[in-house]
Structures are given as C-alpha cells and as structure tokens.
Design goal:
The complex is a heterodimer of chains A (153) and B (115). Chain A is an alpha+beta fold. Chain A has three helices and seven strands, in the order βααββββββα. Chain A has a seven-stranded antiparallel beta sheet with strand order 1-7-6-5-4-3-2. By secondary structure, chain B is of the alpha+beta class. Chain B is 62% helix and 12% strand. Chain B has six helices and three strands, in the order ααβααββαα. Chain B has a three-stranded antiparallel beta sheet with strand order 1-3-2. In chain B, α1 runs antiparallel to α4. The longest helix of chain B is centred in the last third of the chain and has 24 residues. The chains are: A alpha+beta (153), B alpha+beta (115).
C-alpha cells in the first residue's frame, strides 16, 4: 500500500473528573483498568498483548470486534511524571498497514476537589484515511489541484 | 481557566450536520471536481432555487464551501482543508478519544471518589 497523502491535526480535549489526579493517573498506568476504558468504541474489545508502563516501555494492544482483530495499537512511553503527566506515541495499524499515529500528551491537574485532564493529540493519518462516500475521485483530484497550497490543519 | 469541554466539538458537529444530507453531499461531490456556479450546482436537483440556496448556506456556514459573487453569478468552491477535518481516520480517532475520556469518567464515578 503506497502512502500518497498525509493529513496532520492537533486537537486538545479537556475533562473534569471528581477524582484525584493520582486516581486518574492510575487508571492510565494500570493495564487492567485501561482495558476497561481504553476501547475506541463500545463494540470494540481491547486486548492487551503486552504492557510496560515506564519511559521507553512498549504497550501492544489489539482492537477486537467479535473475536476478530481489526487494528493494532503500539504505544511507547516517552515521559512519565507520576500523577502529573504522560507523554507517549500511539501507532495504529490495520493488521499490516499503517493507518496513522499520534503523539499523546496527557496532563493531570488538580482542580478544586477533583482534577482536570488536559489531553493533546498530535496526529498524522496516512493515505487510506477513507473518504466521504461518493467524493473519492473528486477529492483526490481536488487535492491534486491544490497541490502545494494544501496545508493540513 | 474556564473549563472548556472539548472546544472543537461544536465546530465538528456543525460540519457533520452539514454533511448529513444527500443534497449537500452531492454539492460537495460536484465541487470536488472544481468550482461551479449555484445555477450549475442546482441543475441536477428538482428543487426550487430558494430551497437549494438554503443548502448552499448551510455548507457555507459550516465552512465547507466558500461562495463569491462575480457579476450576477455566485460561484462556489470547496474548502478542502475543512472537509479534511471531518474526513475519515483522524476524525474517527479523535472521536474514539472522546468516547474513552467519557468512559473513564463513568468508571471513576462508579467506583466512588475517595479523594
């Protein structure tokens, strides 16, 4: 599969939780807890193939739909400050082909009696990022025309 | 700092709403082939012009197209960059993270917060 296009995007998300930063941090650090909340959608079951929560450590997860592997996620931790922040990369592949990857920065901030989670995703999607139904052809030619003018968000 | 819940969700919602209509998706598909006048875009549809203009306005408000009046002709063009924001993989990846964070919230709630 050739990678003809790349799309980049940075997004931030924020959530306030009625829990201490330490508890929320633990929910990220502990693979048994992460398996419960970390699935990308309700019909996907997350299988943890390996977990190594430390700087330089690698996590391997497989997204399963009805017993079938639909995507693999390989995480590598680059910075961990207990109860305060986690920076890691997530590489997502369709078995065999790279779909995209993201630099995930999570910050755990005390806020009132609870905490605020600040999440930043710096993502690149390669090719195969599937297109809106019915515009495939036009879209690629539009991209072609835009050429160097096209700057991803 | 105010707690802004997912600041770009609203923006994305508007984009997705704009695309949740066959006529408007058809207009996007036509514009993907190049810019076109409102009259050209309306031609394939059996629809009164004011109704068609409503669709054009929704797409314009969502930032998916821009329009420009040249003389008596209003020309529309696709905002490819905006469309890319709503397209495919990254949008789904980010949506997955929103689901995760919400699920994390209910998980934390369920267990009770002992601080």
């Amino acid at each position: 599969m050739s990678h003809q296009s790349m799309i980049h995007r940075t997004t931030t998300m924020s959530r306030t939780y009625a829990a201490s930063p330490a508890r929320v941090f633990a929910a990220w650090a502990d693979p048994d807890i992460r398996r419960i909340w970390g699935s990308p959608s309700d019909n996907v079951e997350l299988r943890i193939d390996s977990a190594d929560f430390r700087v330089g450590g690698e996590d391997v997860q497989t997204c399963m739909v009805q017993g079938e592997a639909v995507a693999s996620v390989i995480g590598r931790y680059h910075d961990i400050v207990a109860d305060r922040r986690i920076i890691y990369t997530e590489v997502i592949s369709d078995p065999g082909a790279l779909l995209g990857m993201s630099l995930v920065s999570a910050e755990f901030i005390t806020a009132g009696s609870g905490m605020r989670l600040e999440l930043t995703l710096q993502t690149v999607a390669v090719d195969g990022s599937d297109l809106l139904e019915g515009v495939e052809e036009g879209w690629s030619s539009a991209l072609g025309r835009l050429g160097g003018q096209f700057v991803a968000v | 700092m105010p707690n802004i819940q997912d600041s770009d969700t609203h923006r994305l919602d508007r984009g997705f709403q704009a695309l949740a209509d066959a006529t408007r998706r058809g207009v996007i598909a036509q514009l993907a082939a190049g810019e076109a006048s409102v009259a050209e875009l309306a031609a394939p549809y059996d629809m009164a012009l004011p109704s068609f203009l409503q669709h054009v306005r929704v797409l314009e408000d969502a930032g998916l197209i821009t329009t420009e009046k040249r003389g008596r002709v209003r020309t529309c063009r696709l905002e490819a960059q905006r469309l890319a924001e709503l397209d495919g993989w990254i949008a789904r990846y980010e949506a997955a993270w929103r689901t995760r964070l919400d699920r994390l919230g209910s998980l934390l709630g369920r267990k009770g917060d002992t601080q």
